[in-house]
Write the structure tokens for this entry.
Amino acid sequence: MTSPLPPQPTTDDARARLVEALVATGAEDRAAFATLYSLTSAKLFGVCLRICGDRGAAEDVLSEVYLTIWRRAGAFEPGRASPISWLATIARNRAIDWRRSAGRRQKVTLDDAPEVADPDPSVEERMIESDDTKQLHLCLDQLDDKQRGAIRSAFFGGLTYAELAERDRVPLGTMKSWVRRGLQRLKDCLSDD
Amino acid sequence: MTTEPTPSASGTEPDTAAAELALGVLDGAERGAALRRTIAEPAFAREVEQWRDHFARLFAGVADVSAPAGLFEQVEARIDGRAGPQRLVNPWKPTAIAASLAALAMTAVALRPVEAPPVAPAPIVATAPMPTTTPPMIAAMALTDTNASQPALYDADAGMVKMPGPMPIPEGRSAQLWVIEGDQAPRPLGTFRAAGPGSYVAEAKIGAVITPGTKLAITLEPLGGSPTGKPTGPVIASGLLSKV
């Protein structure tokens, strides 16, 4: 259905080129697909690598990601979603699917803390961030370390409440309370503009 | 944003189910309950989408890494149906939702009437004014509750639309198909019925001449379809028809 979300700014040239390439890919334009790949593969490979934590797996997943993009590009609605968010979400979901199927066999990935606890963006990175991204980070900064850590781990590691609780060795109810309070504070902060 | 209480939260806690669903922390019954709310409550579905957008901003902090050389060629080979040296060293399996449109096009045969097997097309007589079969058309149906899409196949000859993927139809409701041409009002078509494991078909007498931009939509309606001839329930999927 149509969403009441306000239209997003499209002044950014890079974003406009990306939207153009994505829309043309949806019409099965192979040249546009090649352009889309050259514009986005480094970012999406970074996302796959970040979540899979294994280069070979990330390469397999990236190939699946672009196959999925080719098939789904026709469903992208330019006015509704940010193109890079849309693409990165496909990469994230694919990588988490892989991680889940791999994790069931080798439980070790859940304890692999360095993968999920990455440093906050540097000052330089923050300077080039969009206002929306800055706001999210400002709001995340207001949370407790535990809350922020759990939210980031859930996002980048695809961890569920049960898995987060197991990893941090706290009762499930405690983990849910931490995260729910964190999300509520995040919601208040993000709607505070 | 919605303030309705979530069935999973205790009475004293605020409703954070939309954020939890977008973040992916729910599993089992809680996830099921939240997914059902995306269908039953449009405001909740919008909130989930807003949270997805919020969280997606975290990607800005992920460092770029050059993709390996040759990967794009591998993707192209797979698009063209050339399997290529695919290394499946990991338990990776494409999901049903990612079923390729090419593979789907082949299932068009399953939609043909039994009396006209596609393996033996009737030879076209010189005097025949038109070919006896119309190529199937496809719509990438965007599902409202996720950012996923799944293909729908329209077979003009059979007057049917087939959805090969899973559809979230709650107990006691029907999923009804609509066609929307240009800016005209939605025209009701059939309701979906199961046509095998995870696959659905609905009657769709739209005809063979489809104007560009013709849209298909699926709404949840009372059993048997909308009693008024107009959509009364939430849209669960929509997409534009195009040639295969």
